[in-house]
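Researcher: Sequence of Snf7-domain-containing protein follows. Predict its structure.
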Amino acid sequence: MGGNQSVPKVTAQDRAILDLKLQRDKVKQYQKKIQAVLDREYEIAKRQLAEGHKDRAVSTLRKRKYQESILHKTDAQLENLETLVSTIEFSLIQVSVMHGLKQGNEVLKQIHKELNIENVEKLLEETAEAREYQREIDEMLANTLTVEDEEAVQAELAALQGEQLGAGQKKTPVVFPPVPKTEPVASKPVVMEPRAEDQAASPERERVPVAA
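Model: Prediction complete. Tokens:
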């Protein structure tokens, strides 16, 4: 697994920066070694002076002074290396930015080329021609269809508009009255009593004898 993964390409600039950083690290290691020598020689000169060997102490301090001069030179070399590495890295960033700007300018030129006046006018002309062609088709169809066909077309159009209008409106829910919880009470029949004036005005019904 992982055999198909692409390996990042190492350019000449990458190798140059890597070499400079390796040299910088070597200089730093050399500085540490010199600093250790300076510390040791200082202790040696201090001990020689305490033992009464003044000449040896002076000689040791002279060697120590020479090592200090070398250390100062390595400081300058280290500063030059770090400056060079920073300059190269910043230059690579500038090159990358310039490359991006160049590609962006090419894209803008291509867009402007496609959106020039001639292409815009051509597009407008093609649009006008398409509209004119559609108008001619509409007129031809209108002259070909009968009155009944045109009425059917208008009816279908009205039906489609009605469906769209109905789909856009919300349906109002139907609210039913609540169901009564108690049973209905049967009402008593109302007996109409005859009025007094009706009784006085109506004569008694005569019984008709039935023939034997």
